[in-house]
Amino acid sequence: RIEHPQAVIDRIQYGADAGRGLEPARYRFVHHTHDGRAVYTFCMCPGGEVVASGSAAGQGVVNGMSPRRRATGFANSGVVVGVVPADLPGGGVLAGMHFQEGLERLAFRLGGSDYRAPVQTVAAFLGRANPPIPAASYRPGVAGARLTTLLPRPLTSALRQGLDRFGRIAPTFLDPPALLYGVESRTSCPLTMVRRPDRQSASHLGLYPIGEGAGYAGGIISSAADGIESALALLGSAP
Which helix (H) or strand (E) holds 204? Predict the structure, then answer.
């Protein structure tokens, strides 16, 4: 996840009109690398904060949110890199989940094993400079780390390519104090629970797997839409 002072994003998006009563600005970037991987921003949170999102002990997982007033002074967004089967060690239906869990355990250790988030400036991640770690919104605290040691080399390379492209679109986007957090690993589920055409579980009748956790959505709106469809299917099957 990448974080900036909100004022930086406002200047990128509004130019001379930044600071003139406009709402906190947002952005969206997409890039496809030379080997076909997608790199894109996801769940951009204007006036927001980076939050802890682990679900068990020893997990270093981050996400983002925007409070109602959007007045934290920070802007953040997930930066997603596509993962392909060749990236996954081993095999089997749970290979993606094991890969995800491995990243989360490593992020926890890089943060000091005390629930601080490992961070690195974008400039340092790209090998351009090594500025000090700036102020950050993450309330458990942050710890400087080499995020290049967190991701496998193909993912690090793709992320660097994507960030470089984003910086060409918005030149100050990569400048200090732009900050990267590790690791946002739950933008989508690494497996899919099989369901029948009537949307019930293929193995457990009466169970309706829905949303992100079941592998059928990738965000708030798509999860809500999937839930509505399953609710309608449930109502339609009622005696």
Answer: none
Sequence-ordered list of residues with C-beta below 8 angstroms from that of 157, at least 6 positions apart, any chain: 33
- What integer pLDDT is reported at residue 218 of this predicted model? 87
Give the global pTM.
Answer: 0.94
Could you give the count of Cα atoms lying within 13 Å of 26 in the half-sphere of its Cβ?
A: 15
Asked whether the beta carbons of 123 and 131 are under 8 A apart, the reply is yes
3-state secondary structure of 179: strand
For 198-225, b/e burial (b = at least 16 CB within 10 A) is ebbeeeeeeebbbbbebbbbbeeeebee
CB atoms within 10 A of CB 7: 15
Measure CA 224 to chain center: 19
The rounded distance, in Å, linking the Cα atoms of 30 and 162 is 8
What is the DSSP code (8-state) at residue 113? S
Count of CA atoms in the C-beta half-sphere (13 A) of 195: 20
pLDDT, tens digit, for every residue of 4-56? 999 999 999 999 999 999 999 999 999 999 999 999 999 999 999 999 999 99
Distance CA 172, CA 169 (A): 9
Which residues are paired to 51 by β-bridges? 63
Burial class (CB in 10 A: 0-12, 13-18, 19+), 76: buried
